[in-house]
Amino acid sequence: MFRATSSSRRPSPRWLIALVLIAMGFQATWKIMTPLPTAQFTDFPSPPSSEVLRLSSLGDPISMAIFWMVWLQTFDDQAGVVVPFHKMNFHHLTRWLERILSLDPRSDYPLFAAIRVYAFVPDPDQQRLILDFVHQAFLDAPKNRWQWLAFATLQARHRLQDPQRARLYMDDLGKTIFDNQLPFWVRGLHARILSEQNELEGAKAVIGGIMVHEPATERQKRALATWIEQLEHYEKNSQ
Amino acid sequence: MTNLPSSTSAIATIAVFTLREALRERLIRATMLMVGLGWVFSLFLDELLLTGNESSRAAILAFFFRLGSIFQITILVTFAVARDLHNRGLDSILALPFPRGVSFVGKGLGFALTALLLAGVCGIALLPLAPWNQVLLWSLVLACELLLMASLSLLLTLAIQQAPLALTMTAGFYLLSRSMSTVLLIAQQTKEMVPHWSTTGAKFVLTVIASALPDLNHFTTTEWLVYHTGSLDSLWPILGETTIYLMLLTAMGLFDLYRKEF
């Protein structure tokens, strides 16, 4: 029989041992002669179409959206090189985020990553791209995504220092979502942006709305009343 | 002369022996390994996510379990049937004074029990991450999906009698069934964007192919585990489709078995 046991082993022919050693030598030489791989930065590739992305999910777009997001958010940590976000193509990044969001439109994850990670890139143009992506996502589903646009407004006003953009976002937010459905801080932000742009009547209306609809404490009511008084004072002085 | 059992008890006996054989093939160990690997994989990805939570872990696990159990059941059925054919085990069953269909239905029932067992284990492993009613629904539908794939593997291996080819065809069938509705959507969009006889023809061919496939795209929906949207209303169409397609696969399998010369 052909069963090989330790007792039935016999030495291989010498030429075979030599052949193994020669092959090992060739392999080692080949590896030594091959230049070492160098760390190379790869930019975000252009994303495939939504249909192709959906096709790749094999009928499970929710799980696939998670896998794509993990891939996307670890893209800055490439083999042997850590790439700062500002060196990457944000046009491609926003398109990736948009496609991943289309795989699972109820997920907040791409919007969360956009606001909390990518919007902190130092380049203002790249920040604008990301904030505009969030704005567009809001316009596609305002009722589920209003909080992300509110965060984008904050980013536009404080970090990007772009009051026009902040105003645009806040106006769209106000047009789609009723003021009394928004939390206190968002309506306060709305009033602040309006007053900064000398839209004092609008700002007073928003503050008045907060006073009517918001179950505020006496101290908060006093603060809001003071705010209105200050606006009126400023209005009188500027006339 | 010994009394021969009825066809029903013969089917039950063959089914029990098929299930025992599956268990002997270290099915439990392989399933436990799949569950363990799935949990480790989901915990790892959860660590990478910025806002990992139970829903995202449930989605990752559901994906892993579905593919893993489909892989297991098709490998198990294909190699069990191929081994039976090779060892002439099927010949000895067919030599018994029963209709040929008894062995086919018995084997199929055994594999169906195996599929149920697999789906049950996957369901139990998902219980900590989603509400029990959604997990139950998901597991029942996974059992339907596994049942269809086990029946298809049985049919193809008996018909082709070559395990690698049968496995390749089963995988192709699964990928096509899972993605056919998206392919049809793309074909529809292309037809609307480019109204030409070629796009209309391609759409027609794809519709014909889709009509011969089960719509596995609507089976084991991860949405139930993540957004808890599953209800009994989602179950009935899937049970209907499983019954019809199972009937078709069984009829085709029996047709092939009855015309074969052993």
What is the CA-CA span between the terminal residues of chain B? 27 Å
H/I helix tally of chain B: 10
Q: State the low-pLDDT regions of chain B, or none.
A: none
Total strand segments of chain A: 2
Our estimate of the beta-strand percent of chain A is under 5%
State the oligomer: heterodimer
Strand tally of chain B: 0
Give the end-to-end Cα distance of chain A, rounded to a whole number of Å.
Answer: 110 Å
Structural class of chain A: mainly alpha
Pair with the biggest interface:
A-B, 21 and 29 residues
Physical arrangement of strands within the biggest beta sheet of chain A:
1-2
* Poorly predicted regions of chain A: none
Average pLDDT number of chain A? 83
Summary tags:
heterodimer; A: 239 residues; mainly alpha; two-stranded antiparallel ribbon; elongated; B: 262 residues; 82% helix
What does this structure look like?
- The complex is a heterodimer of chains A (239) and B (262).
- With 239 residues, chain A is mostly helical.
- Chain A has 11 helices and 2 strands.
- Chain A has 2 domains: 44-151; 178-239, no CATH class.
- Chain B starts with 6 loop residues before the first helix and ends with a helix.
- Chain B is mainly α.
- Chains A and B meet through helix 2, helix 3 and helix 5 of A and helix 3, helix 7 and helix 9 of B.
What is the topology?
The complex is a heterodimer of chains A (239) and B (262).
Chain A: H1 14-33, H2 50-56, H3 61-73, E1 77-78, E2 81-82, H4 90-103, H5 109-116, H6 124-140, H7 142-159, H8 163-176, H9 184-196, H10 200-213, H11 218-238
Antiparallel strand pairs in A: 1-2
Chain B: H1 7-24, H2 27-48, H3 54-86, H4 89-94, H5 100-126, H6 132-160, H7 163-193, H8 197-211, H9 222-227, H10 232-259
